[in-house]
Write a structure and sequence with these properties.
With 622 residues, the chain is of the alpha+beta class. It has helices at 11-21, 53-56, 70-83, 101-113, 120-125, 129-135, 157-164, 187-200, 241-253, 290-308, 322-332, 336-339, 342-345, 378-386, 388-392, 396-412, 458-470, 477-485, 489-496, 566-587, 607-618; strands at 151-153, 174-181, 206-211, 214-219, 228-232, 264-270, 277-284, 369-375, 416-423, 444-451, 503-510, 521-523, 542-549, 552-560. The model is unreliable at 54-62 (pLDDT under 50).
């Protein structure tokens, strides 16, 4: 922008002007005033010589704007807690600071508890604190059932998928955490705290029964016995504590009852005076997902602390029940609008099998599972979270999946790869629904094909994968609705014919947000026991699960020793990390950056229109 006159307008004036002319996501987060533009010898803008916005902030104080009122202060505090950043300006973008769709759910939950009334759509449409504060309270007031929810409810798509696997020991398929307890807990108070969780979160009381027409679920009333146990291991011989702990953990992991519930158990292990205890929390996957863990841990700590302080237990208000969500999904699956997606999902129905190391592989069971973990350094993770997203206007998933597509293509020799992609599933589909503090299994699972044919450069790969993911209708949630909930015979036949990919990918986001800074609980080093039955058939040949903890990205690659050698998976995983590092390095280079169609969707352009405009800008001489 060239300014006429002796003085430059202030940043707020510039921002207001651009907001009237551009979509929100194209308005710059910072502005830099220069006397002249640095030029290359041939008269074009020398982008490498342009100063970074951060370097300009001392001269342009308004480029960083501190919170100006109570709403902005509340939001800045929430962002700081979740993102781990102290100084957040009201014009900083949530996603450019490392935020993702999973963290956005937690922002909504905490903002609503503070009385600001936001929904997930607000954060995507208004990703700065200033914009969020302005729209807070403008959405509908959502009234959720605050009492105990009981009665029948339909299965959701992910629950249908689970029972479709026909597992031999379906009751033994859990998620769990093992926590270290730095101070003694009152056993009676902890048991009471667990009882409040069972009362408050209806999903823990789900029960499942198989009938002639298939599996049915019901929200049961309160159980007669609280699913809590205290295990005293103080008499165990020194040096054998870990082995004994694992024996008890394995027993508890196999103890859940789908038919009679409840679907969770909390066990407190003590080892004698002056020794840290352990708290094992396990929940059947049918009632739990990654987002729910933050809610569970937060509420368990809150309930226990209130009881310890002789206060009545008062947990945050419930949001929309899992039962209501399941009912609304069933209705949505019959809509005409959703039927339009069938052609999209069935367009690619072929599946090329993964290479195997063993000619006649044995059963792909949990007993045969092995895992290796690769990751980034803290500095590399910081760059992935803070520097990379702004370059191509991407989410973390876009970059991870680009690296994965490159690694799998190199391994398989196919430029197009198919992946079962997991999403959090808590999509903003209905005006009257708020799932930000609802416990349950909401995951969406859908196939994606990522095609890098003819693409060798990192920037082109990022933009291609980004656009392929943006073309997914409704972030993929329609696939499960059509496959499992549609009552149209033709739709059922078409969707059931789509083969399941052999690779699954799940990025869980930044972990640990459910733990208070002053909490006596922290993640323990011991294993949690066998979360799944050793006899159970694994659902994929290769499972890739990523998360960020303690400032580092880690990616776990789980495979079957009956199909692949450990060296093969190590090689592919290292190719993935090398590709990811290459993408990060590219995004830090001056020549990186680009605009794709999804960035300018409001204008209705085609790709060739955008290419012509960008080419003209690139050739611009000043």
């Amino acid at each position: 922008m060239t300014l006429l006159g002796d003085s430059a307008p202030d940043v707020n004036t510039l921002r207001d002007f651009l907001q009237d002319a551009l979509p929100d996501y194209m308005v710059p987060a910072a502005f830099v005033t220069l006397d002249v533009m640095p030029l290359t010898p041939n008269g074009k803008v020398d982008r490498k010589a342009l100063p970074a916005p951060e370097a300009a902030r001392p001269e342009l104080a308004t480029a960083f704007t501190a919170p100006r009122d109570e709403k902005e202060q509340i939001l800045a505090g929430i962002w700081a807690q979740l993102l781990g950043i102290d100084d957040i300006g009201v014009h900083d973008s949530f996603f450019e600071l490392g935020g993702d769709s999973i963290l956005s759910i937690q922002v909504v939950a905490r903002a609503n508890q503070a009385g600001l009334r936001l929904n997930a759509r607000h954060i995507f449409q208004h990703p700065t604190i200033a914009e969020l504060a302005a729209v807070s309270g403008t959405g509908p007031t959502i009234q959720a059932e605050q009492g105990i929810v009981v009665g029948d409810l339909p299965l959701t798509p992910i629950q249908h998928w689970f029972f479709e696997q026909n597992l031999s020991e379906a009751h033994h398929w859990n998620q769990s955490v093992m926590l270290s307890v730095t101070m003694p807990l009152d056993v009676g108070l902890m048991e009471t705290a667990v009882s409040h969780l069972i009362t408050h979160h209806d999903a823990f009381r789900l029960q499942f029964n198989q009938t002639d027409s298939g599996w049915q679920q019901v929200n049961a009333d309160l159980p007669e016995v609280v699913p809590f146990s205290h295990v005293d291991l103080s008499d165990v011989v020194v040096g054998e504590e870990t082995a004994v702990l694992q024996t008890h953990a394995n027993r508890l992991q196999a103890s859940l009852d789908l038919h009679n519930g409840p679907l969770m158990h909390v066990a407190y292990f003590t080892f004698g005076a002056n020794k840290p205890g352990r708290l094992l929390i396990l929940v059947h996957h049918l009632a739990m997902d990654g987002v729910s863990w933050g809610i569970l841990l937060e509420d368990l700590q809150l309930a226990y602390q209130q009881l310890a302080n002789n206060q009545p237990v008062q947990l945050p208000p419930k949001t929309t029940s899992f039962r209501h969500w399941a009912q609304r999904l069933t209705e949505l699956a019959q809509s005409e609008a959703l039927q339009d997606e069938v052609a999209w999902w069935t367009a690619v129905s072929t599946l090329t099998p993964l290479p195997r190391d063993i000619d006649t592989p044995a059963a792909n069971t949990e007993a045969s599972a092995d895992s290796i973990t690769v990751g980034l350094t803290q500095a590399e993770t910081e760059a992935l979270l803070r520097e990379v997203p702004d370059v191509y206007r991407t989410e973390i998933n876009d970059i991870l999946l680009t690296a994965l597509a490159q690694a799998l293509s190199q391994w398989t020799g196919n430029s197009a790869v198919r992946i079962h992609l997991e999403g959090h599933g808590r999509e903003d589909l209905f005006e009257e629904v708020d799932l930000s503090r609802t416990v349950g299994w909401f995951t969406s699972l859908y196939p994606v094909q990522l095609d890098l044919t003819g693409i060798t450069q990192p920037g082109a790969a990022i933009m291609s994968v980004k656009e392929q993911l943006r073309q997914l209708p409704q972030r993929g949630i329609g696939y499960g609705l059509l496959r499992y909930l549609s009552t149209d015979p033709a739709t059922q036949t078409a969707m059931q014919a789509i083969p399941h990919p052999e690779v699954s990918f799940n990025y869980l986001g930044q972990m640990g947000q459910g733990m208070n800074d002053d909490s006596p609980l922290s993640m323990a080093p011991e294993a949690r026991g066998m979360e799944r039955s050793p006899q159970a058939r694994r659902t994929h040949l290769l499972e890739i699960d990523g998360s960020i903890g303690d400032g580092r990205l880690e990616m776990a690659w789980t495979f079957s020793r009956n199909s692949h050698s450990r060296n093969t998976i190590i090689q592919v995983a290292e190719q993935f990390i090398d590709a990811l590092r290459n993408l990060i390095t590219h995004c830090q280079s001056p020549e990186s950056g680009g605009v794709t169609l999804s960035d300018v969707s409001d204008f209705g352009w085609e790709q060739n229109d955008l290419d012509d405009i960008l080419s003209a800008i690139d050739d611009l001489e000043l």
